[in-house]
Amino acid sequence: MSLLETVKKLPKAPHPAIPARELWLALFGAIIGIGITAWLAFSSGFPMLLGPFGASAVLIYGAYKAPLAQPRNVIMGHFVGACAGCVMYDLFGTTWYSISLGVAIALVLMMVTYSIHPPAGATAYVAVQSGGLGSGYMYILNPVMVGVIILMIVAVVFNKLGKREYPSHWW
Three-class SS of residue 123? Predict the structure, then answer.
């Protein structure tokens, strides 16, 4: 039996197929949101690009109805993650335990502030691993908050133009 035949025999996903319109909206939303942060980063020399933004884009443009994709979670989650990561780096430098503490503390803070956003765990990780991309506590402002605000503005405008109900709640 070929690989293709094996794949075709796998159980189907438990949800209905995603309409083509939703796929196109997700595609162009992510291109515009990430594209703006990338263009600003390349043209200004500021580090507005951050790996976790790619994961956030998947949520806010593709899984926009999910609770973890709502503005409070995205904005607060990344803010908390960046703060926790910067503090751990400041206290312990880049070590195995400072990375694990940064992510774990970010997780707990997101839980107690009701702002869980999984990509924000990676925001904490990057902060500790890179010393805030070499900019220390400024990492919280740029790339994190500047980039998140850009992604959120694009998400709200683009999803509204696409007649999608986003956000389902603000805060």
Answer: helix
Is the distance from CB of 118 to CB of 55 less than 8 angstroms?
yes
**pLDDT per position as a tens digit, 28-51:** 999 999 999 999 888 887 766 788
Which one, of 106, 156, 126, lies nearest residue 55 by Cα? Answer: 126
CA atoms in the 13 A half-sphere facing the CB of 13: 4
- What confidence tens digit (pLDDT) does each residue in 101-112 have? 999 999 999 999
Q: Which residues of 64-76 are buried (b: 16+ CB within 10 A; e: fewer)?
A: beeebbbbbbbbb
What are the backbone dihedrals phi and psi of residue 164, each rounded to the nearest 5 degrees, phi first? -105, 140
CB distance 120 to 148 below 8 Å: no
Is residue 167 reached through a cis peptide bond, with omega within 30 degrees of 0 on the bond before it? yes
pTM of the model: 0.88
The C-alpha atoms of residue 120 and residue 57 are separated, in whole angstroms, by: 12
